[in-house]
UniProtKB/TrEMBL annotation:
UniProt-listed GO biological process terms: DNA restriction-modification system; methylation; negative regulation of gene expression via chromosomal CpG island methylation
Species whose genome carries this gene: Streptomyces paludis
Protein name: DNA (cytosine-5-)-methyltransferase
Source lineage: Bacteria, Bacillati, Actinomycetota, Actinomycetes, Kitasatosporales
Family stated for the protein in its record: Belongs to the class I-like SAM-binding methyltransferase superfamily. C5-methyltransferase family.
One Pfam family cited in the UniProt record for this chain: DNA_methylase
Length: 423
């Protein structure tokens, strides 16, 4: 059995399913549990901090843990850093068989901080029967000192352990998501998987197999066959560039821009007709009118203003803004200030400043889009309202990253193509 603590909506679990294995997840959030049930994952709805350890003794091969990160995350108040000495004390006490959690919890500034010590309660109990065979844990980077404390204890129990910071984009995830990782094993040398991608593509050489370029949002979402920031649109509802109501107009403009074949720029940047349309036929694609290349409309040529789309990671002044040709920044959800939105920016050709119509308004990312950027399948069965779905997605382990971390422990070969992105 593989035991998954704080299982969430199934990031680790989906990776295991792709690799041909199942786990049992412990999770408290009702909507995350509902998502797991819809995805066919074994789930116990419970509080990890109170669930007994004895049912797992003598039957657990692997242990997974991604404690809630809200107390430590840069997207929150980060009171976990204030509580860190208390969490270290709880880990040391639990490793020695002493449960001092109740007293330490009263001193914590954030009650969720102590959840990062919970895996040690399970590990101490399992270690009494020589289990588990391997361990994989994931958290935000600020938890790395705690993982190092875990590592020292696990080495004293006979584990090989590796801890460090992993960049998710280095493993084909379309997101520059940095995470603190702990990998441990009783039967093999614990080490991180070799990166498969890099910011700049590296050709194969005598020193290695080479690495592909980081996966862009456009690639992951299926919005273009190349890495160019292809999705560009004309503002407004017709050839005159008139405004459209939000959100339908902006969302339709973005939706049309997603279709790579629909927007085919000529050398003079006049948008011409897609090959999908019949010869000489005028086609209206939501945000601007397009005509066949051999029958240009001067009004369209004069008034068509182009916009490129980027993803803004939150509503704060220092928010990360990335064009579609790059991976997304780390996706944070759970608070309105962390709302991710698509924003339109003018292309370099739009510099004359004469009568430029207003850009399409920002558009909130959809759960499907956010899930794809976390490498969940396009049809993953998210449960709950939009806010509940976004919270699950932002807190989940990207399944493709989980697959890279788990495949060596399971003795299987990872095929990244098994982790379907855009459908």
């Amino acid at each position: 059995m593989i035991l998954d603590l704080f299982a969430g909506p199934g990031g680790w679990s989906h990776a295991l399913n792709v690799l041909g294995v199942r786990d049992v997840g412990l999770e408290w959030d009702a909507w995350a549990c509902q998502t797991r049930v819809r995805a066919g994952q074994l789930t116990v709805r419970t509080d990890v901090a109170v669930y007994p350890t004895w049912p797992w003794l003598g039957r657990t091969t692997g242990l997974l843990a991604s404690p809630p990160c809200q107390a430590w995350s840069m997207a929150g108040k980060r009171l976990g850093l204030v509580d860190q000495p208390l969490v270290h004390q709880a880990v040391a006490d639990l490793a020695a068989g002493r449960d001092t959690r109740a007293g330490l919890l009263t001193a914590c500034r954030d009650g969720r901080s102590l959840l990062a010590a919970e895996p040690m309660r399970y590990l101490h109990a399992l270690n009494t029967v020589g289990e588990p065979e391997w361990i994989a844990m994931e958290e935000v980077p600020d938890v790395l000192p705690l993982w190092r404390q875990y590592a020292a204890i696990l080495r004293s129990w006979g584990f090989s352990v590796w801890t460090g910071i992993i960049q998710a984009a280095d493993y084909g995830i379309p997101q520059t998501r940095r995470r603190a990782i702990l990998l441990a094993s009783r039967v093999r040398v614990a080490e991180p998987p070799p990166p498969t991608h890099a910011r700049v593509a590296e050709p194969q050489s005598l020193f290695g197999p080479g690495r592909a370029r980081w996966v862009s949002m456009a690639q992951a979402l299926g919005w273009g066959a190349t890495d160019r920031p292809v999705p560009t649109v004309c503002a407004g509802g017709g050839p005159g560039g008139g405004p459209e109501p939000f959100p339908s107009g902006s969302r339709r403009a973005l939706a049309n821009a997603r279709e790579r074949g629909t927007w085919t720029p000529r050398a003079d940047e006049v948008i011409r007709q897609s090959p999908r349309e019949g010869p000489g036929r005028t086609a209206r694609h939501g945000a601007c009118e397009t005509r066949a290349a051999d029958a240009p409309d001067p009004a369209v040529a004069d008034e068509a203003h182009r916009w490129s789309w980027s993803l803004r990671s939150n509503n704060q002044a220092n928010a990360t803004v990335r064009p579609l040709s790059e991976p997304a920044g780390t996706l944070f959800f759970g608070h309105r200030a962390n709302e991710c939105t698509w924003v339109a920016t003018p292309t370099s050709s739009q510099t004359d400043g004469s009568g430029t119509p207003p850009a399409p308004e920002p558009i909130r990312i959809t759960a499907r889009e956010a899930g794809l950027l976390q490498t969940f399948p396009a049809d993953y069965p998210w449960a709950g309202n939009k806010g509940q779905q976004f919270s699950q997605i932002g807190n989940a382990v990207p399944p493709l990253l989980a697959g890279h971390l788990l495949a060596p422990h399971l003795g299987v070969t990872l095929n990244p193509n098994d982790f379907t992105l855009a459908a």
